[in-house]
Structure formats: C-alpha cells, structure tokens
Amino acid sequence: MIKTPAAMDGMFELYLEGSIEPDDIPHTRDPVYILGKRYNAIQELDIIRQDVLSKLWFTYRKNFVPIGGDEGLTTDKGWGCMLRCGQMVLAQALITLHLGRDWMWEPETRDSTYLNILSKFMDKRQAPFSIHQIAMMGVSENKEVGQWFGPNTVAQVLKKLVKYDEWSSLAIHIALDNTLVVSDIRELCLSESCSEGSRSARFGSGDWKPLLLVVPLRLGLQEINPIYVSGLQKCFQFRQSLGVIGGKPNLALYFIGCVGEEVIYLDPHTTQKSGCVENKETEEEIDLDCTYHCKYASRINILSMDPSVAVCFFCSTESDFNELCHSIKKDLIEPEKQPLFEITHEKPKQWTPTLDDAVEAADFDVSGDFDSEHEFEIL
C-alpha cells in the first residue's frame, strides 16, 4: 500500500499515542535476526525495538551548507539515499568498535564517545564522513555531486575517506569479483595496524586493525534469483553481520536483519532539517539527536530487494575474522548449490579484477531522474 507523507505523519502520531500497534516486527515464532543477534519476537519485542532504535539512522537533510561552494546543493533529497546508507553501515561499525554491539541508545544519552561518532557524520564540510565529503570524494569515482551512487561506489568512497580519520581506527576492504581473498585482508589489517602502535592495543586486538568488510554482489538480472535467498538470510545471522546495503529498484535501503522470508530495513527517504547535535546541551540539540534514530523499522519480502547489494561484516579482532571465514565456508559455501561468493586464501592465478568491472556488476542500473521521498510502503 502506498502512503503519502501526510498519511505517514498521521500513522506515526497514532503510533506515538498508542492507538494502533505498529507492524514493524511480525508476531511470529520465527527467529528475528538484527545484525547477528537472535531474538524471539513474541517474548523480546521491546528489546528488538530498542536495538533498532539504537542504530544511527541517516536520512535526507535540507538547508545544510552548500556542497562544493556557494552555488552547490543544500539538500540531498532525491539523490543521497545510497550515500546515507553508506553512512549508516560505517556508523554501526564505529558504534560496535568503540561502544560494543550491546550498546543501546536512549533519548537521555550523552555519552561522549557516542556524540563523537555522531559528529563525524554531521552535514558540514569539516565532518570526515559528512554528505559533503562523500559527495565530493565521489567525483574520484566518476560520480558528479548530486548523481546517484550504487552500493559498490559508496563503499569505494568510504574506503578512501576512512584513511583520513585516525580516531575511527578502521580498515575497509572491498572484495571484488565475488571472491574474498584472505591474504589480501590479512595484509591490509596487519600491515596498517603495525604502524598504529598503541592505538591497536586499546582495542585488545594485538596487531590487527579492525575491519569493515564489504562484498558487492549481483544476485540476478532484474530480480534476486531465489537460489541466493538462503545464503543472504544466513549473512544476517553471522555474529559479525553489519547488514546489507541495497534497496528496492530506485530506492536505496539499509537492511539490518531478517525474519522468515522478509528483510528488516532502515529507510533514508525522509527529509529532515540539518543541524549539529554537538554536546546535547540545549533542547534543540536534544531534539535533533532523536532525528538520528528510527522508532520503527520496515520490512519487505527478500525477493523484492534489488539484486545489486553489498553484504557487510565487521571484525574487530583477528579472531573475529577467523571465525567469520569459518562460518562462511561452513554455512555459505559448503551447503549451498550456488554460494553468494567464494573464499580463497591467495589470489587465483590470472585473476585481475578491475574497479570498473566491480562498479558495472554491483551498482544499480538507474535511468532518469527520480525522487522517491513521496513513496512509502506500510507492510
């Protein structure tokens, strides 16, 4: 059912008043998975919602400082949804690294680490992962400011930007050609961390630099091939899951979990005012902080997803990575007739994937301009 923004506002007010029960999480005995955590929807509904609420939710914003100069864009409405999804997956990696996977947000939260993470995504030029920085860095990926990104492109941009933010202390690896090369990742995380000295030690990870792993995939031509459904569901169940960047056709979404044949997602297609939370010392800053958290998630059938996705994982330690590799082999490759992707210790001979090939294979095929803010779906 398609809902207009006015209708959505009315529905949201009814949710707040408690007049109707939101249909965000189904009442089912099927397990609910949110970024690797298993829940019981009947017994743990409030906890599931608190977990969803604690995720940083980045949406379209308006009236921010122009991107790229005084004549630049002051809103990302209509073009920034995939950029916002990229922000969400990176923010969750930072939350997990610096605050822990079990950390929960509340409106009263003034934790300095949380506020520092949030500040890195504010809509201003100085913030390392702002819409400004992502859009401008996108030019190096042949994307003009205001042009729509695909999942692989936003991952490539974030990989470049994260190198300029020492505090975040992350390494990003993008697995090309549906192949995860273990030696490449070890070289990245071990060589970078060796030069970090004491910073790696504060995370108790020895010589390992925390890893955000992105695997761009094309799971069909126009629709997802059902043969991949089981594998995609398993990705949400891994302890290291950081969700999936993807969407519906022409709509970028951040998928954070699954239940039964459905996937659970955060939707960036809401335009909110821009501003800075700073230290949450004023009512305006407190209210603005709440706009970065979505009260209720949404869900769609997994076969309704666009076949271009990027599966994401986070490994804060080398042990986490070893465990993930074991899980991929055991649960994704060995039992599946058509695995989502392959894993190998060394690069196969005569294998020379190019970035251009990855973009062509993994990014959405979008033709024409569109503005998806006025399309909402209640399931």
Describe this structure in words.
Strands 2, 3, 6, 8, 9, 10, 11, 13 and 14 form a nine-stranded mixed β-sheet that branches. The termini are close together. It is built from twelve helices and 16 strands. Strand 9 (241-248) and strand 10 (251-259) form a beta hairpin. It has helices at residues 5-17, 45-54, 81-98, 112-119, 131-137, 151-161, 182-194, 198-201, 229-237, 283-290, 318-333, 355-362, and strands at 2-3, 31-34, 37-40, 61-67, 73-75, 171-174, 179-181, 211-218, 241-248, 251-259, 262-266, 272-273, 298-301, 308-315, 342-344, 376-377. By secondary structure, it is α+β, with helices and mostly antiparallel strands. The longest helix has 18 residues, at 81-98. Helix 3 (81-98) runs antiparallel to helix 4 (112-119).
Task: Compose a concise summary of this entry.
This protein is an alpha+beta fold and 379 residues long. 33% of the residues lie in helices and 20% in strands. The strands form 4 sheets. Strands 2, 3, 6, 8, 9, 10, 11, 13 and 14 form a 9-stranded mixed β-sheet that branches. It has a 3-stranded mixed β-sheet with strand order 5-4-12, with helices on one face. Strands 1-16 form a two-stranded antiparallel ribbon.
